[in-house]
């Protein structure tokens, strides 16, 4: 194959620098090098895996079913790999990622233990100058971030944490063994997806576990199970259809077809349906049982109260049950959480719960957490407090765009992008599953593959047109921001504080960081944009149309 790098200036060592060697970075390396581009990937960690390399805390597993949370780009790959469980544990996902890296010989494209710490657009040479944490600078025509949305841990903003001299570990950088907690008095701070998965296993070994909960969540049973041989055979026979369904679904998993609203049915019928959904569980469970659960607060209340009742039935101590009942947000408006024996864990004699809403942490001493109501002596603190989502990893690249402005300054008053993949004033820079893409609320692997393919085709389009510089127009970016806002506005996401909107990080602008119109609609729209010659994208300063135009309305 002829190298497509003919137009890459001599001063650029490679066509593309890619950031990260997780699901995004690996597919990026595969897709682009197969098409003949030269590619240099940099990964801060010592090996491939991204999220699944770092998040090794006890109980870590994906809550999107393994058969959907995997690559679809290669039929042989999906035929030869066999998932053991409905929801694969972290170690199995990591070995899958390693298998992919080996099978397609992808490690050779990456330098590990090397972080991108800065990147500046050089307008004269029309390339990116990329600074690495080893002090070197590399130059590339294109810079593509596959740094992920949940790869930058949130600051450890627990007051007085620096005073604590006992064992301290965070779920997102787990570096101890569960045995290290055996017999100890352990505190877990945080009850999101990570905390909920870790808590039952920590409880099994700890002398005493105290959970410090700020916001109770709706935790639905994961209902994980081994995949039977017949199930696997049937999935493998049907993979092409399953993948196509995922690609054109709302959330990147086969759609659970619901058209009726919660009050279209009798109270008894609604209850019956919630019970069936609770048994089914997963993202197509209770939260997806009626069409209006995420838009009508009253409808949502019926589903929320259904879960409240479940909690009260499972948790034996009524006072603890009341603290666990989620009352500060509607079901599904914050990221849904799926657990195994989560509420049952609070029936153990060695587990207690502290509500930080009632008694906030004031400080920590060398061996205790001090709240407004008491002092809790502990030997170990586990932080499960989440991430500086989406912008954290991007701002870590410290990008300087064409006008000399940093990305973090350009987005100071609100996060912006064109399709979640490009940013005006940052030429030749692309994001795989970036902010305002469907990545936030979908099976991210589906979004990753779509984004990589779309970006790769755009690079080819630019090459075919002898264009060296690709940039989203400010007009198209503005339109996309308006579309994403208008799409989320009628939903309960828009009015609920969550990391989806940056509420968990002080000073972060209030922007819902995803497109909620569905991965299927988004894919069809991106395809149409490509077909029409990329309106909203300028090549060497010339835009076919500066606007995205009515494409979003035209596509169903
Ligand atoms: O983080 P989170 P996570 N003092 O932000 C609390 C994905 N994921 O790592 O809600 C005390 O959800 C915070 O309280 P509040 C998934 O997308 C997936 O658990 O802000 N508490 C909350 O309870 C997920 O949504 C999987 O009031 C503090 C918790 O810490 C995303 O990653 C598994 C605090 C943080 O919850 C993030 O999940 C794991 C403080 N200073 C993760 N700061 C699966 O696929 C925060 N909190 C299963």
UniProtKB/TrEMBL annotation:
Keywords: FAD, Flavoprotein, Monooxygenase, NADP, Oxidoreductase. One of its GO terms (molecular function) is flavin adenine dinucleotide binding. InterPro entries: FAD-binding_Monooxygenases, FAD/NAD-bd_sf, Flavin_mOase-like. It comes from Rhodococcus rhodochrous KG-21. It comes from the Bacteria. Belongs to the FAD-binding monooxygenase family. Its cofactor is FAD. This is Monooxygenase.
């Amino acid at each position: 194959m002829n190298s497509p790098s003919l137009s890459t200036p001599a001063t650029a060592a490679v066509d593309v620098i890619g950031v990260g060697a997780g699901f995004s970075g690996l597919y990026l390396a595969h897709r682009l090098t197969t098409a003949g581009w030269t590619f240099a990937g940099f990964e801060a960690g010592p090996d491939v895996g991204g999220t699944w390399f770092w998040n090794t805390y006890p109980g870590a597993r994906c809550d999107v079913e393994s058969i959907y949370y995997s690559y679809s780009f290669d039929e042989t790959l999906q035929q030869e790999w066999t998932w053991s469980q409905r929801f694969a544990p972290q170690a199995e996902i990591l070995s899958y990622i390693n298998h992919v890296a080996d099978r397609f010989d992808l490690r050779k494209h990456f330098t590990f233990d090397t972080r991108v710490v800065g990147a500046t657009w050089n307008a004269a040479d029309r390339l990116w100058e990329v600074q690495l944490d080893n002090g070197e600078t590399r130059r590339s025509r294109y810079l593509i971030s596959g740094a992920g949305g949940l790869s930058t841990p949130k600051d450890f903003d627990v007051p007085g944490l620096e005073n604590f001299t006992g064992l301290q570990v965070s779920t997102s950088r787990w570096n101890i063994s569960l045995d290290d907690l055996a017999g100890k008095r352990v505190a877990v701070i945080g009850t999101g997806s990570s905390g909920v998965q870790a808590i039952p296993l920590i409880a099994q070994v700890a002398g005493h576990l105290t959970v410090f909960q700020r916001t109770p969540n709706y935790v639905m049973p994961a209902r994980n199970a081994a995949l039977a041989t017949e199930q696997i055979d049937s999935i493998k026979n049907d993979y092409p259809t399953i993948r196509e369904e995922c690609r054109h679904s709302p959330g990147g998993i086969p759609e659970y077809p619901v058209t009726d609203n919660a009050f279209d049915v009798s109270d008894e019928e609604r209850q019956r349906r919630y019970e069936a959904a609770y048994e089914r569980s997963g993202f197509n469970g209770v939260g997806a049982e009626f069409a209006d659960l995420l838009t009508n607060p009253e409808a949502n209340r019926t589903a929320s109260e259904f879960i409240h009742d479940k909690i009260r039935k499972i948790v034996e101590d009524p006072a603890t049950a009341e603290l666990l009942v989620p009352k500060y947000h509607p079901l599904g408006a914050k990221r849904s959480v799926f657990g195994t024996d989560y509420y049952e864990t609070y029936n153990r004699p060695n587990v207690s719960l502290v509500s930080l809403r009632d008694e906030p942490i004031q400080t920590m001493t060398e061996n205790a957490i001090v709240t407004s109501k008491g002092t809790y002596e502990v030997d170990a603190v586990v932080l499960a407090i989440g991430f500086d989502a989406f912008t954290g990893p991007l701002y870590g690249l410290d990008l300087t765009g064409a006008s000399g402005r940093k990305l973090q300054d350009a987005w100071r008053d609100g996060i912006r992008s064109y399709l979640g993949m490009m940013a005006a004033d940052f030429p030749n820079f692309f994001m795989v599953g970036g902010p305002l893409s469907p990545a936030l609320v979908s099976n991210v692997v589906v979004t990753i593959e779509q984004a990589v393919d779309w970006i790769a085709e755009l690079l080819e389009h630019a090459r075919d047109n002898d264009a060296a510089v690709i940039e989203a127009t400010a007009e198209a970016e503005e339109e996309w921001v308006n579309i994403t806002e208008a799409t989320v506005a009628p939903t309960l996401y828009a009015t609920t504080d969550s990391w989806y909107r940056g509420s968990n990080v002080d000073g972060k602008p209030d922007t819902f960081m995803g497109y909620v119109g569905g991965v299927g609609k988004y894919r069809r729209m991106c395809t149409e944009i490509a077909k029409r010659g990329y309106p909203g994208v300028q090549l060497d300063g010339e835009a076919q149309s500066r606007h995205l135009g009515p494409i979003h309305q035209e596509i169903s």
